Amino acid sequence: MLCPKCGVDLGEGMLPARCPACGHNLSDTSSEAEGARRAAERKQDVRGLVNMPGRNSGFNLALRALFALVLVAAFVGIIAFVLWHLEIFGGSTVPDVMGWRLDRATEELERDGFNVTSVTAKDDGIPGLVIGIDPAAGKRIEEGASIELTISEERKMPEIVGKPRDEAAELLDAEGLEAEYEDEISDEEEGTIIWAGYEAGRVLTSADVVQVRVAKPRVVPDVLGKSESEAKVALRDAGLTAKVSYVRAEDEKKAGTVVELSPSQGARVHEGDEVQVRIARGTNAELEKVANQIFEELYGRNAVSAPEKIGAALRTYLDPDRKIGGKSVSSASDQAIFEEVVGNVKLPDDLKDIAGKLKCSLVGVDDVTADGNVVTARVTIKWDWSPLGDDYDGVTSKDTHDVKITFDDNQHLVSISDADLGIPEYEIEEGES
Fold first, then answer.
1. Rounded distance, CA 356 to CA 379, Å?
2. Distance CA 164, CA 62 (A)
3. What phi and psi, each to the nearest 5 degrees, are found at residue 386?
4. pTM for the full model?
């Protein structure tokens, strides 16, 4: 056993009351003494280990050197971490300059040792601000490395009118703008932009949709088989003028429809061009139908008192190229047309005032017959005499006219022959008073 105080080997067996070397009281058997004793034993064991053969002072120095080396490495690591964190070496962190103006952001980055380049990108925000950083903010890169800044640029409506559609689309895409295209008939080159919803230079956002109209060739529309009125409307909508003529229908089912066009359907034309439209006319039945319409226009009014109104009504049945008094039908007066087609209504002097005041109406048309280009019929007219005064209240009369209407080969009205037109007979019938 070893002395807990000085470590002298006291041997085995009975212990003396005190250590012969240091005089320490060895009678204390408390846990503290026991612990001290055991510590002394461990110390002695270590000394023995050091003094063992092969465990000389050189080995002890090596252990101490290794320990010192570990301490130095740890210290150096701590210093290196601190210096790296302080960006003394190992590059620099890209600062966050998002939302800064270019000049200020450039100054900040160059101060940290970076080279700065910039590009622009269309954006809906305030122009001139940084909206992108590459490499990203917060990334550690080498000092002197290049950083590219993306700067916001406002979207502006480009000048696209007059440009081809493909080129216009590229200009709009470059501004980040959406467009909706619509074709419109035009004499401009096919595919050319003829209208845009916003004027060039206007500031827009990505939410704006640009309406664009693209030139579509003007062609003769397909009106074959359509009625005359339908064909005229379609040609007018295409910016063209219809010149109508009539031909005899080879097939009665096609009567009243377009059977020929010149230029033909689909042909390229220009605004205002004239298109020859040929309408199939039926045979006798078709002529009789037209004649009945003319009877309504002519005898539904008093030709003596309303010649101009009748002339206006008859204008639509005439060949537009016909000359009346040296003028075309479209330029001639209504009175001139009446006098040309119907002829002057000449009454005896004693009937002029009376006939001009009477009211007439068409009672019926009988025996309508078409023969070639001539239609004949018996037309019954009713006269109302009441406008002459109270003495004629309820007085009416009827008379019958033999009428002949002549057409040309295109079924245009040429003339109306009625020798009795406007002359009322004197077979007076008393009406209801």
1. 20
2. 87
3. -60, -30
4. 0.45
